[in-house]
Amino acid sequence: AQKVTQAQTEISVVEKEDVTLDCVYETRDTTYYLFWYKQPPSGELVFLIRRNSFDEQNEISGRYSWNFQKSTSSFNFTITASQVVDSAVYFCALSEAKDSSYKLIFGSGTRLLVRP
Amino acid sequence: KAGVTQTPRYLIKTRGQQVTLSCSPISGHRSVSWYQQTPGQGLQFLFEYFSETQRNKGNFPGRFSGRQFSNSRSEMNVSTLELGDSALYLCASAIIGLGLAEAFFGQGTRLTVV
Predict the structure, then answer these.
(1) Which of A86, B45, B87, B90 is the most exposed, fewest CB within 10 Å of its CB?
(2) Distance (Å, rounded) from C-alpha B62 to C-alpha B36?
(3) Smallest Cβ distance to B102: which of A47, A99, A100?
(4) Chain B residues touching residue A38 (CB < 8 angstroms)
(5) Chain A residues with CB-CB distance to B33 below 8 A
(6) What is the largest CA-CA distance in chain B?
């Protein structure tokens, strides 16, 4: 069965620290997509990144970077020099295909608190 | 470009009542999906609509239903509300399907059943 595990329920760091959010997934599909979303207190899920299963290149976007390793089924997310505005709940998700339809399977989320 | 709009933002209903939530996707997006978020169960997929057809459905009772109109706007309906239906209901739109492109989410409708 498809599954996404975010073992870290809550992380608290001081501003300017680097922090890594872990994501481990399970899937039998050979083609799949992985996502990270940020959920600020306002509630909407903000898209951060999508990665397909054939692209294991790491990606960097400003202070954000992602490490995708198929060998360990992990898709970890690092925030460098964290800021108070990074405080939010972060979700890792896996897309599951059924016929021509897709749905996202979310992990339980990691609440990140960045203290000034 | 306008984002995904969900209305209403907040709703309080009594057990046994029914409720209808609305979602207007981003212009040009034909896929609309609904998710329920609760503290206990997390984010769970309800259903997905594409070109007015339900393509996929999650593991929810028949009290949960939805539809999509020709302009891609979608509604979801919950009948005979139960206390456990209290949740944040999120709608997502995508050009074709969530796996093929990034999905954009609305701010959600927070439903409280008393």
Answers:
(1) A86
(2) 15
(3) A47
(4) none
(5) 103-104
(6) 39
Long-range contact list for A23-28, CB < 8 A, 24+ apart? A23/A74, A23/A75, A23/A76, A23/A77, A23/A92, A23/A107, A24/A72, A24/A73, A24/A74, A25/A73, A25/A74, A25/A75, A25/A92, A25/A94, A26/A1, A26/A2, A26/A73, A27/A2, A27/A3, A27/A73, A27/A94, A27/A96, A28/A2
Q: What token pair was written down for B22?
A: 């609305």
Residue pLDDT, tens place only, B64-76: 999 999 999 999 9
| Interfacial B residues in 55-114 facing A (CB < 8 Å) | 55-56, 58, 88, 90, 92, 97-108, 110
Q: Considering only CB atoms, which chain B residues are within 8 Å of A46?
A: 105
pLDDT tens string, chain A, 116 residues long: the values are 789 999 999 999 999 999 999 999 999 988 888 999 999 988 889 999 888 888 888 888 899 999 999 999 999 999 999 999 999 999 999 987 666 677 889 999 999 999 99
